[in-house]
Amino acid sequence: MHVSRPAPAVLDLGPSARMLSVVRVDGPEDSPSVVVHTLKGRAARQGYFQVDARKEGTPPDTTGHTAYVLLEVAEWSFAAPRTPAGEVEPHARVRLHTRLARAPEGPWSEPYETGGLVEGTESASDVSRAVESQLLLESSLRAVDDLLRALAPRPRIEEVELDVDSPLLQPGVAAAARGDLEEARASFASVHARHPELPGAAYDLGLVLESFGELDQAEALYTQALSMKDDRLYRDALQSVRVRLRSGASGFPP
Q1: Which structural domains are found in the chain, ordered by start?
Q2: pLDDT tens-place string over residues 148-169
Q3: Which of 26, 138, 163, 175 is placed for a possible disulfide with 118 were both Cys, Cβ 3.0 to 4.6 Å?
Q4: Rounded to two decimals, what is the model's pTM?
């Protein structure tokens, strides 16, 4: 059976930060406004973080729900070299240096770099400012997506072992093996209700509930199973779900 669990974020903002407050963006030309607009749009689509622009004098958020961001557009370049055939191959590159803090005045982390190179092919007569703008925007999208991936936990599919010791659990195990988790859930719940003394029923039902994201119920069932039988499977599952509950990383961006 497989359970989706979060892989840790590359950049640690703490367990509860869901708001990115942009303190400052530095960069050439119109790059700051393009990057911030792109970041806001992609974060909204991702569904894990919200982004706002910090207003001077706003009190710092002491709840831990906000992380503060400095962005530097380290590269904002467009070139359109010609090929021997007389055509051009335009390309744009955007690199971001991101510094993070838990408070608006710092201390700030070392810069984390993301970057995106986007290339296209156009005939010499077609190269225009519109091509440059579009390629720079696409490169910004790539750099921002890389940054958001580094900030949020991602799904990690883990294979977990069901307890198969009791014949009473076999119908649920068979359902889980063919991917019918709703049937497995119903089967394990029925066995658990009729045989609350059976630790495997509590554990197997907990695994299915964890796969549905019902972490509180899974923790209670793992605890119940472990109280009846000291088993490595039960200990590992309980430890894993408690880490997820403490971190708040029970969901993932789509």
Answers
A1: 9-154 (3.30.160.150), 160-247 (1.25.40.10)
A2: 999 988 777 888 999 999 999 9
A3: 138
A4: 0.68
